[in-house]
Protein backbone atom coordinates (compact mmCIF):
# COMPACT_ATOMS: atom_id res chain seq x y z
CA UNK A 1 0.00 0.00 0.00
CA UNK A 2 1.37 3.37 -0.95
CA UNK A 3 2.00 5.98 1.70
CA UNK A 4 -0.32 8.40 -0.12
CA UNK A 5 -3.23 5.92 0.15
CA UNK A 6 -2.58 5.48 3.86
CA UNK A 7 -2.44 9.27 4.31
CA UNK A 8 -5.70 9.70 2.36
CA UNK A 9 -7.40 7.08 4.53
CA UNK A 10 -6.28 8.78 7.75
CA UNK A 11 -7.38 12.17 6.40
CA UNK A 12 -10.80 10.74 5.52
CA UNK A 13 -11.19 9.28 9.05
CA UNK A 14 -10.31 12.65 10.57
CA UNK A 15 -12.72 14.57 8.34
CA UNK A 16 -15.50 12.05 8.98
CA UNK A 17 -15.20 12.61 12.71
CA UNK A 18 -15.19 16.43 12.47
CA UNK A 19 -18.96 17.04 12.14
CA UNK A 20 -19.49 14.99 15.29
CA UNK A 21 -17.07 17.15 17.28
CA UNK A 22 -18.82 18.25 20.43
CA UNK A 23 -18.92 21.73 21.83
CA UNK A 24 -19.26 20.22 25.28
CA UNK A 25 -16.86 18.22 27.37
CA UNK A 26 -18.02 16.09 30.28
CA UNK A 27 -15.75 15.41 33.25
CA UNK A 28 -16.51 12.89 36.01
CA UNK A 29 -15.08 11.51 39.21
CA UNK A 30 -15.96 9.38 42.21
CA UNK A 31 -15.66 11.09 45.59
CA UNK A 32 -14.31 9.38 48.71
CA UNK A 33 -12.27 9.94 51.86
CA UNK A 34 -9.14 8.01 50.80
CA UNK A 35 -8.78 10.47 47.89
CA UNK A 36 -8.50 13.41 50.30
CA UNK A 37 -5.12 14.91 51.21
CA UNK A 38 -4.41 13.67 53.77
CA UNK A 39 -6.59 10.58 53.26
CA UNK A 40 -9.34 9.95 55.81
CA UNK A 41 -11.52 6.99 56.77
CA UNK A 42 -14.88 8.57 56.01
CA UNK A 43 -17.44 6.04 54.78
CA UNK A 44 -18.91 8.80 52.62
CA UNK A 45 -19.05 8.42 48.86
CA UNK A 46 -20.25 10.48 45.97
CA UNK A 47 -20.00 11.33 42.30
CA UNK A 48 -19.40 14.55 40.44
CA UNK A 49 -20.17 15.29 36.80
CA UNK A 50 -19.07 18.58 35.27
CA UNK A 51 -20.29 19.55 31.80
CA UNK A 52 -18.54 22.50 30.16
CA UNK A 53 -20.42 24.00 27.21
CA UNK A 54 -18.06 26.05 25.05
CA UNK A 55 -20.83 27.59 22.92
CA UNK A 56 -22.78 28.91 25.90
CA UNK A 57 -19.68 29.28 28.13
CA UNK A 58 -21.41 27.48 30.98
CA UNK A 59 -20.48 24.81 33.47
CA UNK A 60 -23.11 22.40 34.78
CA UNK A 61 -22.26 20.87 38.15
CA UNK A 62 -24.03 17.63 39.14
CA UNK A 63 -23.06 16.02 42.43
CA UNK A 64 -24.55 13.34 44.62
CA UNK A 65 -23.22 12.16 47.96
CA UNK A 66 -24.17 9.98 50.91
CA UNK A 67 -22.83 8.47 54.11
CA UNK A 68 -20.83 11.48 55.24
CA UNK A 69 -19.72 11.53 58.87
CA UNK A 70 -20.11 15.28 59.15
CA UNK A 71 -22.63 17.81 57.95
CA UNK A 72 -21.84 19.56 54.66
CA UNK A 73 -20.36 23.03 55.01
CA UNK A 74 -19.14 23.63 51.43
CA UNK A 75 -18.54 22.15 48.01
CA UNK A 76 -16.51 23.54 45.13
CA UNK A 77 -13.81 22.77 42.57
CA UNK A 78 -10.16 23.29 43.43
CA UNK A 79 -7.67 24.01 40.64
CA UNK A 80 -4.91 23.47 39.60
CA UNK A 81 -2.48 21.16 41.41
CA UNK A 82 1.16 20.85 40.31
CA UNK A 83 0.83 17.10 39.77
CA UNK A 84 -2.17 15.42 38.10
CA UNK A 85 -4.25 13.44 40.57
CA UNK A 86 -2.35 14.59 43.67
CA UNK A 87 -1.82 17.44 46.09
CA UNK A 88 -3.99 20.30 47.25
CA UNK A 89 -4.64 23.77 45.86
CA UNK A 90 -6.99 26.70 46.38
CA UNK A 91 -10.60 26.95 45.31
CA UNK A 92 -11.30 27.95 41.70
CA UNK A 93 -15.10 28.22 41.79
CA UNK A 94 -17.50 30.38 43.77
CA UNK A 95 -16.94 30.89 47.50
CA UNK A 96 -17.73 29.88 50.13
CA UNK A 97 -19.62 27.10 48.31
CA UNK A 98 -21.56 26.40 45.13
CA UNK A 99 -24.74 28.46 45.09
CA UNK A 100 -27.57 26.63 46.90
CA UNK A 101 -25.46 23.53 47.59
CA UNK A 102 -27.16 21.36 50.27
CA UNK A 103 -25.75 22.40 53.66
CA UNK A 104 -25.96 20.77 57.10
CA UNK A 105 -26.76 17.33 55.65
CA UNK A 106 -24.90 14.02 55.27
CA UNK A 107 -26.42 13.07 51.91
CA UNK A 108 -27.95 14.86 48.98
CA UNK A 109 -27.88 15.80 45.31
CA UNK A 110 -27.04 18.98 43.46
CA UNK A 111 -27.56 20.22 39.89
CA UNK A 112 -26.83 23.77 38.79
CA UNK A 113 -25.48 25.50 35.69
CA UNK A 114 -23.08 28.41 36.10
CA UNK A 115 -22.41 31.25 33.64
CA UNK A 116 -18.63 31.09 33.29
CA UNK A 117 -18.48 34.61 31.81
CA UNK A 118 -19.69 35.93 35.19
CA UNK A 119 -16.95 36.69 37.73
CA UNK A 120 -19.24 35.49 40.54
CA UNK A 121 -18.82 31.91 39.25
CA UNK A 122 -15.20 31.95 40.45
CA UNK A 123 -13.14 32.55 43.55
CA UNK A 124 -11.96 36.19 43.10
CA UNK A 125 -8.38 35.11 43.90
CA UNK A 126 -8.53 32.58 41.04
CA UNK A 127 -9.63 35.31 38.61
CA UNK A 128 -6.86 37.63 39.83
CA UNK A 129 -4.24 34.87 39.54
CA UNK A 130 -5.29 34.23 35.94
CA UNK A 131 -5.61 37.87 34.87
CA UNK A 132 -9.30 37.93 33.92
CA UNK A 133 -12.52 35.93 33.89
CA UNK A 134 -11.54 34.54 30.48
CA UNK A 135 -8.14 33.57 31.83
CA UNK A 136 -9.80 31.89 34.81
CA UNK A 137 -12.10 29.91 32.51
CA UNK A 138 -9.17 28.80 30.35
CA UNK A 139 -7.14 27.80 33.43
CA UNK A 140 -10.04 25.84 34.90
CA UNK A 141 -10.64 23.96 31.62
CA UNK A 142 -6.90 23.24 31.34
CA UNK A 143 -6.97 21.87 34.90
CA UNK A 144 -10.01 19.71 34.13
CA UNK A 145 -8.37 18.44 30.94
CA UNK A 146 -5.07 17.77 32.71
CA UNK A 147 -6.42 16.00 35.79
CA UNK A 148 -5.27 18.78 38.13
CA UNK A 149 -8.74 19.95 39.25
CA UNK A 150 -10.80 18.18 41.89
CA UNK A 151 -14.31 18.28 43.31
CA UNK A 152 -14.37 18.51 47.09
CA UNK A 153 -17.13 18.30 49.69
CA UNK A 154 -16.25 19.78 53.08
CA UNK A 155 -17.99 18.98 56.38
CA UNK A 156 -17.87 20.19 59.97
CA UNK A 157 -15.91 17.05 60.98
CA UNK A 158 -13.49 17.32 58.01
CA UNK A 159 -13.14 21.08 57.35
CA UNK A 160 -10.38 20.53 54.77
CA UNK A 161 -12.63 18.10 52.89
CA UNK A 162 -14.39 14.84 53.70
CA UNK A 163 -14.62 13.41 50.18
CA UNK A 164 -12.99 14.43 46.93
CA UNK A 165 -12.03 13.18 43.50
CA UNK A 166 -9.92 14.44 40.59
CA UNK A 167 -12.03 15.13 37.52
CA UNK A 168 -11.21 13.55 34.15
CA UNK A 169 -12.79 13.95 30.71
CA UNK A 170 -15.04 11.19 29.41
CA UNK A 171 -13.79 10.03 25.99
CA UNK A 172 -16.26 11.02 23.29
CA UNK A 173 -17.72 8.41 20.90
CA UNK A 174 -15.95 9.99 17.92
CA UNK A 175 -12.60 9.39 19.65
CA UNK A 176 -13.40 5.68 19.65
CA UNK A 177 -14.51 5.88 16.01
CA UNK A 178 -11.20 7.46 15.04
CA UNK A 179 -9.30 4.82 17.01
CA UNK A 180 -11.17 2.04 15.20
CA UNK A 181 -10.59 3.71 11.82
CA UNK A 182 -6.88 3.98 12.57
CA UNK A 183 -6.68 0.34 13.66
CA UNK A 184 -8.50 -0.63 10.47
CA UNK A 185 -5.96 1.26 8.37
CA UNK A 186 -3.07 -0.41 10.19
CA UNK A 187 -4.70 -3.82 9.66
CA UNK A 188 -5.12 -3.13 5.94
CA UNK A 189 -1.47 -2.13 5.59
CA UNK A 190 -0.34 -5.25 7.46
CA UNK A 191 -2.47 -7.54 5.26
CA UNK A 192 -1.16 -5.98 2.03
CA UNK A 193 2.45 -6.26 3.16
CA UNK A 194 2.03 -9.96 3.93
CA UNK A 195 0.33 -10.64 0.63
UniProtKB/TrEMBL annotation:
Signal peptide: 1-22
Key words of the record: Signal
InterPro entries, per the entry: CHRD, Ice-binding_C
Domain CHRD positions: 25-169
SMART domains per record: CHRD
Annotated Pfam families: CHRD, PEP-CTERM
Protein name, per record: PEP-CTERM protein-sorting domain-containing protein
Organism: Nitrosospira multiformis
Amino acid sequence: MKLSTLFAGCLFASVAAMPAAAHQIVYTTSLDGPSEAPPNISPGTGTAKITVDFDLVTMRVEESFSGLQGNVTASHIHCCTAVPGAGTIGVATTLPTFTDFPSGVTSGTYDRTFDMTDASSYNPAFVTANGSVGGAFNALVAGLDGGTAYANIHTNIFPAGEIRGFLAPIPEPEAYAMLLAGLGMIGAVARRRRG
